[in-house]
Design goal:
- With about 280 residues, the chain is of the alpha+beta class.
- The protein contains twelve helices and seven strands.
- It folds into two domains: about 1-25 and about 170-280, no CATH class; about 25-165.
- A three-stranded antiparallel sheet has the order 1-2-3, with no helix packed on it.
- The longest helix is centred in the first third of the chain and has 17 residues, at about 1-20.
- It starts with a helix and ends in a 6-residue tail after the last helix.
- Bound molecules: heme C (2 copies).
- One heme C (HEC) binds near residues 181 and 186.
Length: about 280
Amino acid sequence: MRRLMLKVAAVLATVLVTHAPITNAGTPLERGEYLVNSIAACGNCHTPRDPGGAPIADQALAGYPDFYSAPPYDLHAPNITPDSKTGIGDWTDEQIIRAIREGVRPDGRVLGPPMPFNLYRDISDSDVRAIVAYLRSIPAVEHTVPTSVYRMPLPPSWGPPVTTVADVDPADTVAYGAYLAGPVGHCVDCHSPLGENGPDIDHRRGHGGIAFDGPWGTSVSSDLTPTGLSRWSDDEVKSMITTGVRPDGTPMMPPMPYAHYARIADSDVDAIVAYLRTLPPR
Ligand code: HEC
Ligand code: HEC
């Protein structure tokens, strides 16, 4: 655990000095790089890890075999680098967008959880295109990952086809915070208690309570409604999100992707916290 934390700290340090955050400014490629490597944290599931649990730097997004196993499933997060044989190099932009927002592969197979398709369907057209532009730009890594096995019924679809999704105006702080904490960052997916069909985001958004087992032991997602966050100032909440350290100095546990969140732009963390303060109290 301590080793893992030291590694996380080392990754944070490198990340902090090498990148300045890009929010809405810049090209689609820059926007995509920012989203994938900060708030969206796709690599938290899709990047392979070494035996100590640290992401393998030169295999970013090359797929994480044995990502998680539990009685209902054996999850293997696929290789999403542009390798044509073992990744998504041969997929068209539209096919990648459909996989992300609708959870349907080019061969028609419906993708299973835990990728949060119910939230990803509301990623805006320009942001999903930016994400695809970035995925096309990263090094192709040849890395075969087994197909996930689901011993549970998957829904026939995650909803009707997504046609077009407008951008949310960052000047509307609370609405933009809701967009970041929901569709883009899926904070509310990990932070809403499990109902019959996965996290009950509709009725108990942000109430917390999902238990995550791993090499770290068991962590339980916190209550992010004003009830749970009342004891913290805005700066304390921001600092926990971007450093993974509590105000009393103790490290927070995975699987919250702290190393990615260290790169979230200050104005974006402000928007997320402003939004969390408006959630109905638990
Ligand atoms: C919580 C973990 C998780 C997160 C976060 C996540 N994914 Fe996934 N993703 C998966 C898993 C697991 C699968 C495979 C599901 C299956 O096999 O049915 C998958 C499948 C995919 C596929 C289909 C690939 C294929 O070969 O079938 C694409 C494309 C993809 N993810 C892109 C992304 C992008 C882009 C992001 C970030 C915006 C992301 N994912 C975030 C876990 C995740
Ligand atoms: C993959 C699951 C996961 C994701 C995604 C995630 N969290 Fe967490 N979060 C957790 C867990 C688990 C804890 C508890 C950690 C601990 O107890 O050490 C936590 C703790 C926190 C805390 C500490 C609150 C307190 O009072 O203790 C805050 C704040 C928080 N998360 C905010 C967020 C925000 C904002 C996002 C999205 C940008 C997010 N989380 C995304 C799993 C997640």
